[in-house]
Write a structure and sequence with these properties.
two-stranded antiparallel ribbon; mainly alpha; WH_DNA-bd_sf; IclR family transcriptional regulator; Arc Repressor Mutant, subunit A; 4 helices; single chain; about 5% strand; WH-like_DNA-bd_sf
Length: about 100
């Protein structure tokens, strides 16, 4: 059976943009610095950033022009963290329940 490669260069680049933006939520990064860090041309990265913006996962600071992760992306991360915490609590309750004598 032949294994299908579903990897898409544009989607992988977009995910790389997200990784570059991570950790820069307050000051953001300039389009030029993002493009340089990914060894890509600025217009290509601009298109990726605009797609993130459309999805609510990226935003541009009107004052500086810098880009950062948007509220939706952060909300997803917080929801994931909350789910892990709830699951850990449930596991601790089960462990406690089954370990009683």
């Amino acid at each position: 059976m032949t294994k299908t490669n579903y990897t898409n260069a544009g989607q992988q680049r977009l995910l790389a943009v997200v990784r570059v933006l991570a950790g820069n939520e307050f000051d953001g990064l300039s389009l030029t610095s993002i493009a340089k860090s990914l060894n890509e041309k600025a217009p290509v990265i601009k298109r990726d950033l605009e797609n993130l913006k459309t999805a609510g996962m990226g935003e541009q600071d009107e004052r500086t022009g810098h880009w950062r992760l948007g509220p939706k992306f952060i909300q997803i991360a917080i929801a994931h963290f909350d789910h892990v915490n709830r699951t850990e609590s449930r596991m601790a309750e089960l462990k406690n329940r089954y370990s009683r004598g």
